[in-house]
Amino acid sequence: MAPPVKPIPDGYSAVTPYLICAGAADAIDFYKRAFGAEESFRMNAPDGRVGHAEIRIGGAVIMLADEHPEIGARGPRSIGGSPVGIMLYVDDVDATVARAADAGATVTRPVETQFYGDRMGGITDPFGHVWHIGTHVEDVSPDEIARRAAQKSGQGG
């Protein structure tokens, strides 16, 4: 008897981002240059568009495909932007944001050390997806985060 099929396949987590891109093949190349992504799977549709692909960044799987408006799959540039961002933790946020900018991303938030213990920066990739990139630099308790947030907003000391 075959072992039971796992509801979440090995190597995947319960939540996996799925990005729709106008130009998914170019997006895969961008993610390789900017984030060191490794492509693990690609299936093209009969018309040549990427029907489904998977990349890994730091061990996490991200699925992506080209726009397929006929089934409602449109990327952020086609719908006026995206309210969703992806948080990416890396060993060196400064180098990663610089590499992403060199690869064609727009820096939307300069890298700074934040009161909650992360050094953070933000980019929008050439396909309209928003990335929050950080390196954790300090363990901060919830009480200390609250104190620092109040201090930063001018409401406490």
Automatic annotation (TrEMBL):
Report the leader peptide range.
Answer: none
Extract the InterPro entries matched here.
Glyas_Bleomycin-R_OHBP_Dase, Glyas_Fos-R_dOase_dom, VOC_core
Q: Where is the VOC domain?
A: 11-136
Alphabetized CDD domains for the sequence: VOC_like (cd07246)
Q: By its UniProt entry, which PROSITE patterns does this protein fall under? A: VOC
Q: Looking at the Swiss-Prot or TrEMBL record, what is one Pfam family this protein matches?
A: Glyoxalase
Domain of life of the source = Bacteria
Record protein name field: VOC family protein
